[in-house]
Every structure is written in C-alpha cells, then in structure tokens.
C-alpha cells in the first residue's frame, strides 16, 4: 500500500490537502480548488502511458518489441492483435497478465494541421443506445470508432476468453483519446464488458461530445476515468464550448513545465438533465488506503463531482496555446516522434 501524505488528515480520512479538518470542506456542493495529484496516482498513470505511445509505433508492435514497448511497467504484455489500418484509424489490443488487464491502445492523428481543421468543421451526431435524448458526439470521432469497432470487439472477446476476469484499460492520445472514450461508452452501455471493469486513460484529447453526452458518460459506473491535459495544449480546447461541446471528468492537469500536476474538481452547473441525477459526492467519506494498482481508490477523490469540466484547470488558459505541448505528457514524447530510437547512444 502506498500512503499519500499530502492528502491524508483526520485519522486516516482522505480530504483536501488545504483543509485542516473535514469541517473546512465546503458541504454545500461548491467546488474545491484544484488539489495536488497524489504521487501514487501520477506514478500509476505514468506506468500506463506507454500503451498509448506504443499505438504509434507499428514496427515491432505485435511482438511487443517496439521503441516504446520496453518500459518495466508494460513488460510481459502479450497476445497483441492490431486493430484497423495504419493508413486510417489504428490501434492494438493485448493482455498484461501481471496487472490482470486487457489493454486497448488507440493511435492519434498523424497530421496535426488536418486534425485541427477537421475538429472545427465536423458536427455532432447521435451516439449509443441508452444515452439520453440530446446526447451527441463528434461525427468524425464516431466514424473513427465505428471503423475499428468490429476488430476491437473481436480482439477483446478473444482476450477475455483467454484471460477471464481481467479488467479492460482503453487508452489513447489525441484522436485516440476521444475514440477511447467512445469505445468505453460502447463497451459499457452495450454490456459487452461490465462497466466496473473498464478503465479509461485519455491523453491530450479533444472534447468528444456535447454536455449531455459528457454528463451521461460521467454517470456510467466505470472503474476509473482519467483525462490528462498537458499545460497549454490547444487540442483539449477543441471543439469549442460555444458550439456545445464539453469534456467529461476527471481531468488531471499538468500545470507547468516542471510536471506539477493537479486533480481538477468540477461542480454541477445549473442546467441539470431531466431524468438524470448525478450521484452526490461525499467529501469526507473516502477511504484513506491507496493501492497503486487499485484504480478505484482514486476514483472518488474529495471535491470531484462526476460532472462537466472545471474552469480552474486547463480551462483557465484562454490564450497562448501551444501545439508543441500536444506531443508531450510529463517528460515523455508521444506521437510519431515518440517512436524514434532513443538518442542516448544506445541505438
């Protein structure tokens, strides 16, 4: 078990690090400021990022011998099956027996200029059965998911038959992060995989759907959902909110070049969805014990309502966007250049 001293107070209760006692926490539903990301959570997510990076590295992928396939945390990944086409939407599915996880890694775009143009001109379309009226997702993201859906379902079904009881981690960067969100929504809402066995890790992803979709997705009882945003990267601000798009929680914002990372609380807005009540968030009753391999321990950090995005994290950036930040997460390059051999004299 890993302790997280910065957020442990009051006899083992997990509370906001700025609060001296639980009584200091706002109990009226108001949002808390961003809180320091527990080091154990950052370490856990860093250990999984190579799966999203490896979706770009086609050479050696099936043998799990690509440039980014050698991280200690992903060692032993096996039964790799590729999804889609390298010329279009592409990814892979595999198993990691050490963590009892089936992994679906989805590649992002290969052309940032075209990517930005496509984000601005496409329109939302209806998503999945079970989502409420008015729920819409970006048409381009939906088509990308549909193009690899059959491959993904076939591969995941085969892997779960071979490795029963494993959880399913769906991860991706950029376009891959948006498609990972849709994949998780589809897998969970269709019952193909039990929702409480699905984990989502989306990295520098755009807004996937409208506010109705974001709230509905937040209500799905997934095991864990994390959306990493690097500093002032432009892509997570697209498509813009003024055309109706919204991020789902929960955002982890890398706030500066030093890698300082915060968990971004959100609060309910005034336009509640008819017929959809989001679960209340008890700010004082979260278990203190944190196991780096147990994602559920991080799911209900205090102050994080399962609702639309915070204005205090990436959304506090309103100018000076930098596309160079899109191809990094913490100190790791992600994208096509991330597949280059390391420039350390070892190649």
UniProtKB/TrEMBL annotation:
SUPFAM superfamilies, per database record: alpha/beta-Hydrolases
Domain Fungal lipase-type, residue spans: 103-241
Domain of life: Eukaryota
InterPro entries hit by this protein: AB_hydrolase_fold, Fungal_lipase-type, Sec_MonoDiacylglyc_Lipase
One Pfam family linked to the record: Lipase_3
Stretches for region Disordered: 13-33
CDD domains: Lipase_3
Protein name per Swiss-Prot or TrEMBL: Fungal lipase-type domain-containing protein
Source taxonomy: Eukaryota, Fungi, Fungi incertae sedis, Chytridiomycota, Chytridiomycota incertae sedis
């Amino acid at each position: 078990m890993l302790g997280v001293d910065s957020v442990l107070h009051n006899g083992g209760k997990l509370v906001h690090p700025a609060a001296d006692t639980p009584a200091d926490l706002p109990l009226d539903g108001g949002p808390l400021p961003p809180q320091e990301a527990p080091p154990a959570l950052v370490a856990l997510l860093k250990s999984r990022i190579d799966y999203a990076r490896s979706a770009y590295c086609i050479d050696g992928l099936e043998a799990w011998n690509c440039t980014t396939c050698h991280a200690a945390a992903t060692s032993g990944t096996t039964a790799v099956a590729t999804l889609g086409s390298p010329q279009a939407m592409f990814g892979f599915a595999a198993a990691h027996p050490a963590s009892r996880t089936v992994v679906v890694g989805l590649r992002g775009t290969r052309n940032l200029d075209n990517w930005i143009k496509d984000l601005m001109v496409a329109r939302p379309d209806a998503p999945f059965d079970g989502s409420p009226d008015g729920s819409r997702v970006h048409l381009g993201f939906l088509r990308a998911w549909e193009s690899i859906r059959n491959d993904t379902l076939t591969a995941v079904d085969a892997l779960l038959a071979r490795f029963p009881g494993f959880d399913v981690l769906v991860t991706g960067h950029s376009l891959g992060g948006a498609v990972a969100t849709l994949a998780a929504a589809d897998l969970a809402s269709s019952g193909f995989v039990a929702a409480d066995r699905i984990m989502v890790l989306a990295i520098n992803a755009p807004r996937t759907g409208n506010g109705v979709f974001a709230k509905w997705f937040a209500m799905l009882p997934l095991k864990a959902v994390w959306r990493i945003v690097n500093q002032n990267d432009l892509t997570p601000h697209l498509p813009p909110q003024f055309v109706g798009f919204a991020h789902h929680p929960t955002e982890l914002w890398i706030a500066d070049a030093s890698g300082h990372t915060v968990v971004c609380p959100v609060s309910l807005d005034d336009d509640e969805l008819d017929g959809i009540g989001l679960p209340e968030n008890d700010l004082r009753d979260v278990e203190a014990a944190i196991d780096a391999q147990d994602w559920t321990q991080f799911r209900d950090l205090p102050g994080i309502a399962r609702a639309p995005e915070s204005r205090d994290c990436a959304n506090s950036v309103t100018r000076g966007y930098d596309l160079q930040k899109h191809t990094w997460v913490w100190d790791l390059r992600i994208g096509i250049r991330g597949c280059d051999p390391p420039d350390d004299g070892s190649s």
